[in-house]
Amino acid sequence: MTETNTPEPIWKTPFSIDRANQLSKGCANERLGIELIEAGPDYVVGRMPVDERTKQPAGILHGGASVLLAETLASFAGAFCVDPETQSVVGQEINANHLRSATSGHVTGTARPLHLGRRSHVWEIHITNDDGKLVCVSRMTLAVVDRPSSGRY
């Protein structure tokens, strides 16, 4: 028997990169060039260009764009961790520590859960530049809410 260090999958619904990217069409994710690129058993990875859409006037990555990437990754991850027929997730709180500027290329975020509870999730998101250096660390709390039984959601 071979022992592995691969964690058990956390997804209630198999994570679909294609589905997540399709849902991003026509909203802020698409407009800022955010795309999900990988999902493992307990993490999601996405990237965003550092260009005129995501830079602030000083020519560096806007902190709000980093937060939008972080929230996108945590929200998609959380949505795949609940039963989509009966529950959904909504953001409750997000914070970010901006550690290094980025001026070009892409930033890549990886979201991993710190807590997956019955009524809340806490996700940690590390955002790095093209050299793999940490640009931002963010933490997001999601509320797990019941979908209305009326079907109006």
UniProtKB/TrEMBL annotation:
Keywords: Hydrolase. It holds the Pfam family 4HBT. Signal peptide: none annotated. GO terms for cellular component: cytosol. InterPro entries: HotDog_dom_sf, PAAI_dom, Thioestr_dom. SUPFAM superfamilies: Thioesterase/thiol ester dehydrase-isomerase. GO terms for molecular function: 1,4-dihydroxy-2-naphthoyl-CoA thioesterase activity. NCBIfam families: unchar_dom_1. This is Esterase. It comes from Pararhodobacter marinus.
